[in-house]
Amino acid sequence: MQHRHNSIDRRAVTCFLWMLALAPALAIFVFYAGVVHARLVLGHWPTLSHPDPKQIHSISFAASYSVITIAIFLTSLSPLGWIAMLPVAETFASLKSFVARIVVYLVSLVTLLTLARIDPGGFVGWFLD
Q1: Strands (E), 16-121
Q2: Which domain holds residue 17?
Q3: How much is the pTM?
């Protein structure tokens, strides 16, 4: 029975580490999916203050807005998740797989921060308005 418990723990740790590694990439995807959703609801691309995202009266967009907010919040907490997982990851993950996950995380985080900084289309400014 102990062997089964360890394999479940190993799968849970592996899954959680990949979720942490992909969190910024998923936040990018969710954000731009929400922008496309706003485009479909409005009939035009949203621009700064036109309209305020909270003024789009669509239940489906309200759900998208909430998911985007949650994704951004969880991504901002992901460094704490990495710190918390270090002792567990040392036990369950090989150095090679751990480094691979960290590289995926750092590349997607740098991409997220770069997109937020350069803000192509002005969608980050629109969302935060």
Answers
A1: none
A2: 2-128
A3: 0.83
